[in-house]
């Protein structure tokens, strides 16, 4: 038991604070899930490649499973970097590694969706009939498409399970790589089902069904890829911190501002918060009432209290100013409150 706890602590350095126990357990679960994810994807790639034949959808499914290895790989590699302590050359630490991992996963998702759309559309408009022959099993000749259907359905089972698990693990860890990987797994199982449906259509004489279903699925994958690429780039260029699904401003921005405004010596305050990957860099600008600036040890006590209110507030500073600078406008529009 002690050995396990020690192992957990070795992999959870997040700057000034360590992860809370709940997040430590969640992170260890995420690591196990992503390792299993890689293994299942490798098996799926081998299985699909061995029966792909000339099916357009099977070829797309094979490439998709190959690309799907990138998000879990990016997550595990990024974890090794963000665990490093800050150095004189990297005073903010290596938390951006997780943002880079998110972008890698997002580009893989967008790239696959685009490839699937273009390749399937070209095959459909060119009138390419998938050439799927017969295979002999135990002396019986079976249309190879039915073997493909069975394989396509079997390989999506791990993707459904892992995708749902990652979607639940991402918010408590504030990890957008896991969120993108959940989208990738969704794309994976949707492609697998589409492949099975498309091949079934071909089996009943609808040669175009294979490519048509793949095109239909590609639009949803492209949408998820675009959303994640946009979110990944936004984090790397210091956009406002957002929730894991990248839809809303993170509630900590408002919570920190409200906590500061409750101090009796604060006249005005505002918060500038950016996402470093799993943790935030936060600057709190405060305008004290005339002649009521507290001593430095009181300011430091408040800074530590604010920082300790949430593990994601890893790098928080309080900056007393005479007036709120216009260039640091509020990050929450009134219409969003």
UniProtKB/TrEMBL annotation:
It is found in: Membrane. The chain crosses the membrane at residues 38-55, 61-82, 103-126, 146-167, 187-209. It comes from the Bacteria. Residues 47-233 form the Cation efflux protein transmembrane domain. Keywords: Membrane, Transmembrane, Transmembrane helix, Transport. InterPro entries: Cation_efflux_TM (IPR058533), Cation_efflux_TMD_sf (IPR027469), CDF_Transporter (IPR050291). It is a multi-pass membrane protein. SUPFAM superfamilies: Cation efflux protein transmembrane domain-like. The keyword Cytoplasm does not apply. Gene3D superfamilies: Cation efflux protein transmembrane domain. The keyword Transmembrane helix applies. Its main location: membrane. PANTHER family: MITOCHONDRIAL METAL TRANSPORTER 1-RELATED. This is Cation diffusion facilitator family transporter. The lineage of its organism: Bacteria, Bacillati, Actinomycetota, Actinomycetes, Micrococcales.
């Amino acid at each position: 038991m002690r050995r396990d706890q020690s192992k957990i602590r070795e992999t959870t350095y997040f700057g000034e604070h360590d992860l809370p126990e709940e997040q430590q357990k969640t992170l260890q679960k995420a690591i196990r899930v992503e390792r299993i994810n890689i293994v299942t994807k490798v098996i799926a790639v081998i299985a699909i490649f061995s029966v792909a034949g000339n099916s357009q959808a099977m070829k797309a499914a094979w490439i998709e499973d190959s690309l799907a290895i990138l998000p879990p790989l990016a997550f595990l590699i990024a974890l090794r970097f963000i665990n490093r302590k800050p150095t004189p050359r990297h005073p903010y630490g290596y938390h951006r590694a997780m943002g880079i991992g998110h972008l890698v996963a997002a580009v893989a998702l967008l790239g696959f969706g685009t490839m699937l759309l273009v390749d399937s559309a070209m095959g459909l408009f060119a009138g390419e009939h998938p050439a799927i022959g017969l295979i002999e099993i135990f002396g019986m000749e079976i249309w190879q498409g039915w073997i493909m259907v069975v394989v396509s359905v079997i390989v999506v089972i791990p993707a459904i399970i892992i995708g749902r698990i990652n979607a639940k693990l991402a918010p408590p860890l504030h990890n957008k790589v896991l969120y993108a990987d959940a989208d990738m797994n969704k794309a994976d199982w949707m492609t697998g089902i589409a492949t099975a449906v498309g091949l079934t259509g071909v089996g009943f004489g609808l040669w175009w069904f294979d490519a048509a279903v793949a095109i239909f699925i590609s639009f949803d994958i492209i949408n998820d890829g675009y959303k994640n690429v946009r979110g990944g780039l936004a984090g790397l260029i210091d956009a406002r911190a957002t929730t894991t699904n990248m839809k809303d401003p993170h509630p900590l921005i408002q919570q920190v501002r409200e906590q500061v405004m409750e101090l009796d010596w604060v006249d005005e305050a505002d918060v500038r918060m950016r996402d470093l990957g799993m943790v935030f860099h936060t600057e709190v600008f405060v305008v004290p009432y005339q002649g009521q600036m507290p001593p430095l040890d009181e300011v430091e006590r408040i800074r530590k209290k604010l920082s300790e209110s949430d593990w994601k507030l890893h790098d928080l500073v309080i900056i007393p100013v005479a007036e709120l600078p216009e260039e640091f406008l509020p990050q929450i529009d009134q219409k969003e409150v």
